[in-house]
Amino acid sequence: MVAAGAAQAATLSVAPGPDAQERLQTALLDAKPGDTVQIAAGRYDLTDGLSLDVDGVTVTGAGPGATVLSFKGQKGAGEGLMITSDRVTVKDLAVEDTRGDGIKSKGADDIRYLNLRVEWTGGPKATNGAYGVYPVASSRVLIDGVVVRGASDAGIYVGQSQDIIVRNSRAEFNVAGIEIENSMRADVHDNVATHNAGGVLVFDLPNLPQMGGNTTRIFRNRVVDNDTPNFAPKGNIVAGVPTGTGVMVMANRNVHVFDNEIAGNQSAGIMVVSYTQAFNDPRYNPLPRDIVVRDNRIGRNGWDPQFPGGPEIAKALGGPLPPVVWDGVTTVPGQPVPARVRLADGPVLNLNLPGPGRVDAAAPTVAARVGDAVIPEPAPVRLEAPRP
Fold it and tell me: N or C: which end of the chain has fewer CB within 10 A?
């Protein structure tokens, strides 16, 4: 390890070779705010996870095809890289075959994931790590130019965070390609989600420190050919995502889905549904509300729906499901304000369920569009913030 640079910022360089694990972790421990940890091109066979808890550090490689951190021999079940500090950038490297999550950051504001690859090289397996890139409980998150393959939960996941941009990225052969969960103010655009069980998910779940997820724009994405059988471990919430789902919005508010290409998803192009499991938090609203679906380019979807009751509904309709499917639940006990939608990319299938998950009592109707609520599009997410 060689340290060089100006007095205010140093570059800590690490090369492949013996004791790379120790030398790399030492560099992450020794870095000071403003420093760069430079990981040279090569393959690093690591047996334990790495951690960073210093603000204002850049961790960079020589490119995701050149600098490869392999955790195939990882002894513990943790992350490949865990970040718990602010104003960190991770870029230009690959992380492979972690036993846990690929790269996770927690409580890390102004976090940047740039030009990365996270992959489980053995293909989709329930024993793969849950998440590829995994910022949680953070503000001002940028994910740009990231590729994730093989995550047993979500490839690109942002949870319980605020002010998020996910762009120019690719998620494939994961259970969920891209997931925004219990978060506020997110822009997800110019990405490709393909060959996942579900392409793009926007969820809000109960019993978490931050609930009330809202204000997400999903636009200019290609959500195509999501056809990998759901391989999530039993009990995971995403284990219930039907194989072949394009976009799913569940129990979130003020979500706008527009200007996307959505095709080749066997269960449905776009699903707008309520949370169906039992919960005991009176603050939680299980309904999707203030949802806008408009101006998408929608191809063939819904020819083989994999959710309970789906095949029977398709048979009753005499063909594939319409491109947009809404469960039709507008009220639940304890939530006096009815849900509003504007689903304009018809035909739209309204299941008219009497309550969340009551597919057994579906009374399906099909219309050119459903709902005419005036719901203004959210302002673009801005990530201006002081940098070191």
Answer: N
